[in-house]
Design brief:
Rossmann fold; alpha/beta; about 15% strand; binds iron/sulfur cluster; 11 strands; five-stranded parallel β-sheet
């Protein structure tokens, strides 16, 4: 073994595989920096605390990088290798992440890259041929080590140079997580299940909402937060309406309102917070007020005031929620 201390950047999702991949390399005396790249489509629950906890347990530094803008401009709508089952361009997404990590190697003084990918684990991005496509896209060649599956793959530079001992790496393939769980237990890893689900681009309902959105509008980073919460409706003149389902949604909608949207709230009844396209027609605003009232604590025979931006609309809710259904975006 070459004893010169080496440094690696690990692509880190917060998941078990990437945590164990870090452990396998770190425990061989390599300094590892865990890099989490934010593409904007993580689920709503904050994962930062979880990621920090995982990094603390394996004793490495966590760094995060926000690439949401670049991802929307260059990857999401034009993936060279297409999409998975939903709106997930996983091969291009991984390729892009590794390319970015490679660019950071010099400024961060790293010698190689590692990832938690496991051959054959995911249908799209972790098939054997897909791993090669990712390596090709990112031009990472043999500086990219996949410690979880290393023994099932050709030796990479860090292995050939003796910076890491290939024999101490794993050769996992497929979806079975037995080896991972056993190793997690051995090293005493705790609370490693990720909170709040994974990437929303792999979620069927979210993907349909996103596809519908881009039929009407250009997606910008600021639009993503609103896509993650509430009931989504499209009104007859083309305005988008998002109505909160519960307190957490209402808070998220309030926080996600940008100049492209106008807030709606009921003035004399308890009800949801809603957001409507700022350029909505008067007819759409009027309907939005009625729809918002329908989801409030209201009675069809009563009149209510709904504030839509600077305007006040007097409205009554529909008799039931049934007439609202036709405006819902189909997911
Ligand atoms: S699941 Fe999401 S974050 Fe992961 S590679 Fe696919 S698109 Fe990228």
């Amino acid at each position: 073994m070459n004893k010169t201390p080496r440094k690696a950047i690990a692509l880190f999702s917060g998941g078990l595989d990437s945590t164990l991949a870090i452990h396998l390399v770190k425990s061989q005396g390599v300094e590892v920096i865990a890099l989490n790249i934010d593409i904007g489509f993580g689920s709503t629950k904050s994962k930062l605390e979880h990621m920090q906890n995982m990094c603390d347990q394996v004793g490495v530094e966590l760094r995060t990088l926000d690439i949401r803008d670049q991802y929307l401009r260059e990857i999401l709508f034009n993936p060279k290798y297409g999409y998975g089952k939903n709106f997930n361009p996983c091969i291009d997404c991984h390729g892009n992440m590794f390319k970015i990590a490679k660019e950071l190697m010099e400024p961060w003084g790293a010698d190689f890259l590692i990832s938690g990918e496991v051959v054959g684990q995911r249908p799209m991005s972790q098939r054997r041929d897909a791993l090669d496509l990712v390596t090709g896209l990112s031009e990472t060649d043999d500086i990219l080590l996949r410690p979880m599956s290393a023994k099932a793959l050709p030796p990479t530079l860090p292995e050939r140079e003796g910076w890491v001992d290939r024999e101490k790496l794993l050769g996992i393939t497929g979806r079975n997580r037995e080896v991972q769980l056993k190793l997690a237990k051995e090293i005493g890893l705790e609370n490693f299940e990720k909170p709040g689900g994974g990437c929303l681009l792999t979620d069927e309902n979210f993907s349909k909402k996103l596809a519908e959105f881009v039929e009407h509008d250009t997606l910008e980073v600021e639009d993503i937060a609103l896509l993650k919460c509430g009931r989504h409706l499209r009104l007859p003149d083309g305005a988008k309406l998002v109505i909160g389902r519960h307190k957490e949604d209402n808070e998220m909608i309030e926080a996600a309102i940008t100049p492209k949207y106008t807030k709606i709230k009921l003035l004399n009844a308890v009800g949801p917070i809603a957001a409507i396209s700022a350029n909505a027609s008067e007819l759409d605003k009027e309907l939005a007020a009625k729809l918002t009232a329908t989801y409030g604590k209201t009675k069809p025979e009563e009149k209510y005031e709904a504030q839509v931006g600077d305007e006040i609309f007097t409205t009554s809710p529909f008799d039931s929620k049934e007439p609202c259904q036709k405006y819902f975006i189909k997911t």
